[in-house]
Design goal:
The chain has about 325 residues and is α+β, with helices and mostly antiparallel strands. The chain is built from six helices and 20 strands. The protein binds zinc ion.
């Protein structure tokens, strides 16, 4: 059966690419539809929901470009970079038109702001076709990050287990199961009963080959796990964490982190300070829990509500 999304249509055994329009806006999102010669499930891979996460964006582009429909049992849809507007603005975290974090807007709104409409378009036009969703991310332009993955609980425990199974085959060793992150791609998918995985690698606005390959191999592993592709799955042992708290800035100013990614911190430990432009300390920030530092803001410039560090703990 042909797969049609917006104006893009791919017959069985073929691949098509183009742009999916966001109704009522000038925004378009790149999309590749790979319709396999054989039957099977449909996998969605997205990247660039945040515009400066380059290894994830490149991994998804390569995945869509490399896939041969003749080799597929099932279908793969790739969207990267989803937020073409943020990508070309070199805008971290936010959609430039409305200043919203697209990964907090799902399932979106048909008549909302730009980011809300982008989320809605993906949910309304793409997600009804899919059986699994891998959303690739990384540290954005001001963010250091060690590779990790996340998944969310679904109302159906079997779906939660299927999401965890995607993580188990992906090939990254750290897995967090956050307490309900409202508005994310994976929480919207989980609510609909669709297994979904967040996979993060790469950092600080750099396109690097090891992190690109880590994410690209993960996409292949998931496609093999789902039976869409044949071939060996290479896995790594998982370290699982139940919680993933973030420390956010309460002040605008200059940020001086005192921890690095991969550090172990104790609850209450000072993880950094924000100073004003004259060297006066405005606030000390402490670790909310004992755990393992997954991400750190490494930009001197911080704004209120910016993530400063993220910790994983049991
Ligand atoms: Zn991201």
């Amino acid at each position: 059966m042909s797969l049609q999304i917006g104006e893009i249509s791919a017959a069985p055994g073929s691949k098509a690419s183009g742009f999916l329009s966001v109704p009522g806006t000038a925004i378009t999102m790149p999309i590749v539809v790979v319709n396999g010669a054989g039957d099977g499930p449909t996998l969605l891979v997205t990247a660039g929901i945040h515009g400066g996460e380059y290894p994830s964006i490149e991994a998804a582009i390569r995945f869509g470009a490399e896939l041969d429909p003749a080799q597929l049992n099932g279908r793969v849809i790739v969207m990267s970079p989803v937020s073409l507007n943020a990508f070309h603005a070199r805008q971290a975290f936010l959609v430039p038109e409305d200043g919203k974090n697209l990964n907090r807007q799902f399932p979106g709104k048909a008549l909302g702001t730009i980011a809300e409409r982008m989320a809605h378009t993906i949910m309304a036009e793409v997600v009804p076709h899919i059986h699994a969703w891998v959303d690739l991310h990384g540290g954005d332009i001001p963010e250091a990050l060690i590779p990790f993955m996340g998944y969310e609980a679904s109302p159906d425990p079997a779906v939660t287990e299927q999401s965890r199974a995607l993580a188990a085959v992906f090939g990254i060793d750290i897995l967090v199961k956050p307490d309900k992150l409202v508005g994310t791609s994976i929480s919207a998918a989980a609510a609909l009963g669709i297994p979904a995985l967040l996979a993060e690698a790469g950092q600080v606005g750099i396109l690097d080959e090891p992190n690109t390959l880590l994410l690209l191999h993960g996409c292949y592993n998931v496609a093999r796990h789902l039976g869409i592709l044949s071939g060996e799955i290479e896995t790594v042992p998982l370290h699982e964490y139940a919680h993933w708290p973030w420390v956010r800035a309460a002040h605008k100013g200059c940020w001086y982190p005192r921890v690095s990614i991969g550090d172990t911190v104790q609850a209450g430990q000072v993880v950094g300070v924000v100073k004003d432009y004259f060297g006066t300390v405005l606030a000390e920030y402490t670790a909310p829990a004992s755990g393992f530092v997954l991400l750190v803001c490494v930009a001197l410039s911080v704004n209120v509500n910016d993530p400063l560090i993220g910790i994983a703990h049991d």
